[in-house]
Design goal:
Blueprint (H helix, E strand, L loop, with lengths): L1 H19 L8 H8 L2 H24 L9 H6 L8 H17 L26 E3 L4 H11 L4 E5 L5 E5 L16 H10 L4 E4 L5 H9 L4 E16 L6 E2 L1 H9 L16 E2 L1 E2 L4 H11 L11 E2 L4 H7 L4 E6 H7 L6 E3 L1 E2 L6 H5 L6 E9 L7 H9 L2 H9 L3 E2 L4
Parallel strand pairs: 1-4, 6-12, 7-10, 8-9
Antiparallel strand pairs: 2-3, 4-13, 5-10, 5-11, 5-13, 5-14
Helix pairs in contact: 1-5, 3-5
């Protein structure tokens, strides 16, 4: 509306002068052009030019160009007293209207992003954390970060490695946390004995039903990337398997390593227990509805067990997750991961999501958390750039794109 009023005023100035002085009354086009070059017209153009100069000056000031002077070539071309053609005259009016319309409009700027302030916790109000085995180092990194304690890799009971707080000499209270394994972590969250869990897979149907029985809905949020990997003995020369070959081994259609390019030896396909995170990943990522062979003698109860077994079994084939294999498995075990469909599992292929069995590590909370709940605040912070930097520092691949 303001722009229309200004434009109307601009047009009213020359019209008033033209009609009051009889300049445009009952004139042919040729006569109007002649009159426009008359002394009277030059006088009115002189007044208008001064006004336009002021508009141009304001335009420059609003845009911060540093100088309010008009380009000398323009000033020379339209100096006061010079003849002005009607087309040029109307063009000046239009430009002036546009100048007023846009000159002082504030420039658009990028939205201001407030710095992310991490939540502050005491040991008493820090959320109770639980995790799967492979996600324990991430859990420990989070706790150590907020309580300014160093974490270190230690040899754990049974032989694998864990990332744990170094509390020697720590002066204050330190919050407790659990590593109950994937399945039990979900149950603990539904029961209320855990507030936030880190897991290597989404909840299973059994776990969702259990939560429903407790009137709990899980909020599942990816926070890091991991991968489902297959391992063989280091003496095994096979370095690459296809998805079809893996499925054929675990459905019983391929029984011998000779069918996979090695020697005539029976394959020993190790599995995990049904409620483990690894077994759920095997069903969801690889088998996709195909039934696996029953192998009770080759079904193992812990994450470390496949590494222990295959380390001494050259004909063994098993599976785990990348983070556990790369960082937590006993260093002395003689196993190696193999490529799948021509892609080797490492940080680069996982971050690029080119490895076929790339998966996520999840933050899971109860769905009824209010925004001021410590678990809600911690989950929100871990998804910020600062939180993702902490994920990377723990050795995990951040979920956010680099």
């Amino acid at each position: 509306m303001w722009a229309l009023l200004v434009t109307g005023q601009l047009l009213a100035i020359p019209i008033k002068h033209f009609y009051c002085h009889g300049v445009f009354r009952r004139k042919t086009l040729k006569q109007r052009i002649s009159v426009a070059n008359s002394r009277a017209m030059r006088k009115h153009c002189t007044h208008l030019w001064k006004w336009l100069h002021a508009v141009h000056k304001q335009f420059i000031i609003c845009h911060g160009q540093g100088s309010s002077s008009i380009d000398p070539s323009i000033a020379h071309a339209r100096r006061p007293g010079a003849a002005v053609k009607p087309t040029s005259f109307l063009l000046l009016i239009m430009l002036s209207a546009l100048s007023l319309l846009f000159a002082c409009r504030p420039p658009e700027s990028a939205p201001v992003v407030s710095p992310v302030v991490p939540p502050a916790f005491s040991a008493a109000d820090f959320p109770m954390l639980d995790s799967s085995t492979s996600a324990e180092p991430l859990l420990a990194s989070v706790v150590c970060h907020f309580f300014e304690v160093d974490c270190e890799w230690v040899q754990w009971i049974g032989g694998d490695r864990r990332f744990m707080p170094s509390l020697e000499g720590y002066p204050g209270e330190f919050p407790g946390f659990m590593t109950s394994g994937t399945h039990q972590s979900y149950l603990n969250l539904a029961d209320g004995t855990a507030d936030l869990i880190f897991t290597a897979r989404a909840p299973s149907q059994e776990e969702l039903m259990y939560a429903s029985g407790q009137s709990v809905v899980y909020t599942v949020t990816p926070v890091a990337l991991d991968a489902f990997v297959f391992i063989v003995n280091q003496a095994n020369p096979v370095n690459d398997l296809t998805t079809d070959q893996v499925r054929a081994v675990y459905t019983g259609d391929i029984l011998n390593w000779e069918q996979l390019g090695w020697q005539d030896r029976e394959i020993h396909p190790y599995q995990r227990n049904d409620t483990s995170g690894s077994q759920e990943l095997m069903h969801n990522l690889v088998m996709k509805g195909l039934s696996m062979i029953a192998a009770p003698d080759l079904t193992l109860p812990t994450m470390m067990a496949p590494f222990n077994s295959i380390s001494t079994d050259e004909a063994g084939l098993g599976y785990s997750v990348y983070f556990y294999e790369a960082y937590m498995a006993p260093e002395q075990e003689r196993v190696k991961p193999v490529a799948i469909d021509g892609v080797y599992p490492d940080r680069t292929s996982i971050q690029a999501r080119t490895y076929p069995y790339t998966t996520a590590v999840y933050l899971v909370t109860r769905g009824d958390l209010p925004p001021d709940a410590p678990a809600y605040q911690l989950r929100a912070w871990l998804l910020t750039p600062e939180g993702q930097a902490l994920v990377a520092s723990s050795g995990n691949v951040p979920y956010a794109a680099p």
